[in-house]
Amino acid sequence: MRHTLAALVENKPGVLAKVAGLFRRRGFNIESLAVGITEKPQISRMTIVVDGDDKTIEQVTKQLNKLIEVLKVSDVTKNSVERELALVKVNATPQTRGEIIEIANIFRGRIVDVARDSFIIEITGDEDKINAFIDLMRQYGIKEVARTGKIAMQRGSKALE
């Protein structure tokens, strides 16, 4: 089963390498990893998606908590808001531009760049929504895709602190 872990870590050089190294040494594959600064400049938040059963995830969480630079780890798989961002560069001919714009609007995407022969479309949502949009764009010819990976936050007033 896929699990989403949120970790608060010190915002210092080498912390990401230590966390990734821990996963590598244990033989776990990170499916998605997103890192960004929090409301406190000295702390970063990592959102890590990893595949494993409950026992495996418990072991990973314990190992992460042993790292000095890791301040808090929480499994946010359940009862959370999850989003991903993708930029999709797609071929756009004069004949297909209208269709592509319509599809982007249906998916609440935004066209963020227009070139003579292509669009770059920004889309946010869950993984299924992003995948469905990309599948629809394949018929027009995808030139490039960049995805952030999943970020997640627990619903309600509870916060990872």
Automatic annotation (TrEMBL):
Family to which the UniProt record says this protein belongs: Belongs to the acetolactate synthase small subunit family.
Database matches in InterPro entries: Acetalactate_synth_ssu, Acetolactate_synth/TF_NikR_C, Acetolactate_synth_ssu_C, ACT-like_dom_sf, ACT_dom, AHAS_ACT, AHAS_small-like_ACT
Reported function: Catalyzes the conversion of 2 pyruvate molecules into acetolactate in the first common step of the biosynthetic pathway of the branched-amino acids such as leucine, isoleucine, and valine.
Name of this protein: Acetolactate synthase small subunit
UniProt domain ACT: residue ranges: 4-78
Catalytic activity annotation: 2 pyruvate + H(+) = (2S)-2-acetolactate + CO2
Organism name: Ferroglobus placidus (strain DSM 10642 / AEDII12DO)
Subunit structure, as described in the record: Dimer of large and small chains.
Pathway membership: Amino-acid biosynthesis; L-valine biosynthesis; L-valine from pyruvate: step 1/4; Amino-acid biosynthesis; L-isoleucine biosynthesis; L-isoleucine from 2-oxobutanoate: step 1/4
GO biological process, one term: L-valine biosynthetic process
E.C. number: 2.2.1.6
Molecular function via GO: acetolactate synthase activity; acetolactate synthase regulator activity
NCBIfam families: acolac_sm, PRK11895.1
GO cellular component terms, semicolon-separated: cytosol
Keywords in alphabetical order: Amino-acid biosynthesis, Branched-chain amino acid biosynthesis, Transferase
